[in-house]
Amino acid sequence: MPHSLVFRENHTFTIAQFTDLHWKDNGELDQMTRRLMEEILDAEQPDLVVFTGDVIYTGEVAPGDLMCEDPLGALREAVHSVETRGIPWAIVFGNHDTESFITREELIHAVLEYPHTVTQRGPVEISGEGNYRLSIQNAAGQSKFNLYFFDSGAYSPVSLIEGYDWVRSDQIEWYKKESLQIRDTSTEQPLPSLAFFHIPFPEYQEVWDTKTCYGHFYEASVSSSQVNSGLFAAMLEMGDIVGTFVGHDHINDYWGDLHGIRLCYGRASGYNTYGKEGFQRGARMIRLREDERSFETWLRLADGTVITEQPEHIPGT
Mean pLDDT of successive 10-residue segments in the chain (317 residues)? Predict the structure, then answer.
């Protein structure tokens, strides 16, 4: 891995989450996405960029009308703004990244060739490609924060179950083993951690329905799997995850606290896909502070607006 992730001298570490770029063919809409990314990167100067899936769009607009016929070229253009700035970046795959022309294995190998990526393939014996953990260290080289990345798959592998895939049991067991092995050496307590994946788990619907949340819910419902595989329960049991970050639902951007874990949507970043009039593209920003088991988060939008306080939603009101 060419880059170490280290807290700055002021003991902060900033992450930019770009999600659902849906890069297609370098046309006008893709160039709008590029400009958005460049302006956000230059304004925020993040220490790490995380792409939470659907970076490229290899599906069909209509039968026979493919969105992207050159996946590797689309990937190159999608990450160009980050690569040319020398910013470390990580990726997880979404449901549209490998629908045609390329497999997940081929795509992860292509990702690993970039000089500034910190992505890892992860264990080949478990489901998906790109299940891995990154550590953020202090100046003395001690791990202070962990970042987990999960391949949440694409579509249901069970013929009787419609809809989207889920993080499988072998991925969850991998995470639990990692979490147990990585502890704070001074306290033997779990190191605070964040998790990134594309498809939200069902608890994203639960937190909106039952807890005070902040932000917007414009989708008809959370587009999670119909199967709850227990990833959220495992996170509670391990006691390390303080926040999760997903994409997939382009016009949801809320966050809420469920049993001590903040479930956060990103802000859709790409123009080559559906949106909502007046709902600008953007990115979710995340700031960690050394020795704190929490994080700050805000949105930066396409027009340069910074949103630090999102509208409150109270269930039943």
Answer: 86 98 94 98 98 91 65 96 98 94 96 98 98 96 95 96 97 96 73 97 98 98 97 97 98 98 98 94 98 96 98 93
**Cβ(127)–Cβ(154) below 8 Å:** no
CA distance 254 to 200: 12
Q: What is the pLDDT of residue 3?
A: 79
| Cβ 95 vs Cβ 154: under 8 Å | yes
Please tell me the pTM assigned to this model. 0.96
> What's the one-letter identity of residue 113?
E
Q: What is the pLDDT of residue 212?
A: 98
Confirm if 194 and 243 have CB atoms less than 8 A apart.
yes
How far is it, in rounded angstroms, from Cα 215 to Cα 217?
7
Residue 267 CA: distances (Å) to CA of 132, 169, 192, 254:
23, 28, 23, 9
Q: What's the pLDDT tens digit per position in 110-135?
A: 999 999 999 999 999 999 999 999 99
What Rg, from alpha-carbon coordinates, does the chain have? 18
Report pLDDT digits (tens) over 45-87: 999 999 999 999 987 665 555 567 899 999 999 999 999 999 9
What amino acid is encoded at 139 in this protein?
A
Angstrom distances, CA of residue 181 to CA of 80, 105, 123: 35, 27, 16
Q: What distance in Å separates the CA atoms of residue 72 and residue 65, rounded to the nearest whole number?
A: 18
Residue 228 and residue 152: Cα distance in Å, rounded?
12
CB 255 within 8 A of CB 265: yes
Number of H helices, E strands in the chain: 6, 17
The order of strands in the sheet holding 261-265 is 5-6, 132-137, 143-149, 193-196, 241-246, 261-265, 255-258, 213-214, 312-313
What would the 3-class secondary structure string for 69-104 be? CCHHHHHHHHHHHHHHCCCCEEEECCCCCCCCCCCH
The SS3 call for residue 275 is: coil
The residue among 44, 41, 66 whose CA lies nearest residue 56 is 66
